[in-house]
Amino acid sequence: MRPPRRPSSAAGSWPALLSFLGVLALWELAARSQAVSPVFFPPPSAILGRMGGQGTLERVWLPCLATLGHALSGLAVGGSLGIATGVLCGACRPADAVLTPFINATYALPKIAAVPLVLALTGSGDLLVVSLVAAACAYGTAVMTRHGMDQLDPTLTLAAVNLGARRGQVLRHVVLPGLTPYLIAGLRLALLESFRMAVVIEALLAVRGLGRQMWISGSWFDMESYFAVIIVLAVLGYASVRGFDVAAAALAPWARRYELEDIR
Amino acid sequence: MNSKISARGLTKVFEDTGVKALDGVDFDVADGEFVCLLGPSGCGKTTLLELLAGLTAATSGEAVLTRRGRAPACMVFQDLALFPWLNVEENVGAGLRFQGVPAPERKRRASGMLDRFRIADAARLYPHQLSGGMAQRAALARAFVCEPEILLMDEPLGRLDASTRRLLQEEFIALWEADRKTVVFVTHSIEEALLLADRVLVMTARPGRIKASMPVPFARPRGPATCRAPGFFEAEQSLWSLLEGETRRTLDDKEPA
């Protein structure tokens, strides 16, 4: 009997946290002793001071909320779209024949290529960022869902039918849970993609958010604010993935193992 | 004979590959009879069970299953087909859930069956956390809890190591002798067939047909001592002589199985 693999716990992140603090300490020393230019690399203590100082609400926290909104609403729209497309392609041959080549052909294109087109449709604003984030998220989830549809075990469907399941029950109790590990994997990738995309578009088109703030601070050599934004972004990315993993492990405790290997 | 299963001219050709899996299979199974299907790999035993279970349609011929109630003919699959996302108790209750049995009754019947199969301690475990023997018992319990009149079993013990297999055979005989359901049991093992069955049907190499039907003469209740009963060795030999040529044909067959 194999023991169940436990999801990586918070205790497992101590080495990462310690090495991160170590880097900060070295940085602090280097900046204070002028080994690196404190203009470009202000000491972490100064950055932390800036995060609590005056004007932080406008410079860091409101943009942080805006980016969070862009990323998560884009993820919700794009993720749903991607999952629906993946299920459709897996379940319906003609749809697969039409959509899959289209997806493969456009997947590799940088989504930024679509900016002029989307800009014409949505104007420059929140909707633009959300649309492009949604597009970026839809691809990964669609491909993962489509793959998951191929991996469904036909014997489980036979078993359910043999036990008396009707069509709807097969969908609800066999197809959906069978897809769950792939949905989790696809959405997890899309979550990270959503932050990357939101920041890039905010910076490129000067839409409110951490992306624009990072760009402005960098251009004005306000390096404390610049690094503050980067730190907030890193924490946001880390915390959201961590939260996602905890939620996934709570909602589908069996999936962590199941996604890695075939079940007898 | 009070026939529970009646197969007439069952033929199955797979449309996508053109492979003929079964060719005119005829047999009857009496109510309460335990029949083992013995045949070389790829002779269509699994296909035959799926036809009986109504999971696939015959190309020609028909199988008539006489049922008194609504309870389905339950199949135990070769790879068990436990739902990975349900724990053992939920897996065992899955059939009742599909049939709309209310939760309290479902829980009561499932936990009764867990006790009967001695896996009550594993009720909260998921399939990937189970040993082979426990997973096997869970799959059997899932079929038994539906109280089917007919059990269709596709090499359910084939994946187990020899000693676990032997113990489970003994448990299974005892369970079956208690309420004598009609069973069609696919196996590769001659010894297992002689230990379990009232009658052994030997199948030919692909396309599968029924080559011979041999009643098993040993008295019940059976157990480890049955293998030492007079006549056991002879029965084993006569089944092997029926099977040997078919197995050789399968081995020499150039087509992929």
Give a topology summary:
The complex is a heterodimer of chains A (264) and B (257).
Chain A: H1 14-32, H2 44-52, H3 56-91, H4 93-107, H5 115-122, H6 126-151, H7 154-162, H8 167-205, H9 210-219, H10 223-251, H11 255-258
Helix pairs in contact in A: 2-10, 3-4, 3-6, 3-8, 3-9, 3-10, 5-6, 6-8, 7-8, 8-9, 8-10, 9-10
Chain B: E1 3-13, E2 20-30, E3 34-38, H1 45-53, E4 60-65, E5 74-76, H2 88-98, H3 103-116, H4 132-144, E6 150-154, H5 162-179, E7 182-187, H6 190-196, E8 199-203, E9 210-215, H7 232-252
Parallel strand pairs in B: 3-7, 3-8, 5-6, 6-7
Antiparallel strand pairs in B: 1-2, 1-4, 8-9
Helix pairs in contact in B: 2-3, 2-4, 3-4
General description of the model:
The complex is a heterodimer of chains A (264) and B (257). Chain A is mainly alpha-helical and 264 residues long. In chain A, 77% of the residues lie in helices and 0% in strands. Chain A contains eleven helices and no strands. In chain A, helix 3 (56-91) runs parallel beside helix 6 and helix 3 (56-91) runs antiparallel to helix 8. The radius of gyration of chain A is 22 Å and the shape is elongated. With 257 residues, chain B is of the alpha/beta class. Chain B has helices at residues 45-53, 88-98, 103-116, 132-144, 162-179, 190-196, 232-252; strands spanning 3-13, 20-30, 34-38, 60-65, 74-76, 150-154, 182-187, 199-203, 210-215. In chain B, the strands form two sheets. Chain B has a six-stranded mixed sheet, sandwiched between helices. Chain B has a three-stranded antiparallel sheet with strand order 2-1-4, covered by helices on one side. In chain B, helix 2 (88-98) crosses helix 3 (103-116), helix 2 packs parallel to helix 4 and helix 3 packs across helix 4. Chain B has seven helices and nine strands, in the order E-E-E-H-E-E-H-H-H-E-H-E-H-E-E-H. The interface between A and B is medium-sized, with 31 and 31 residues.
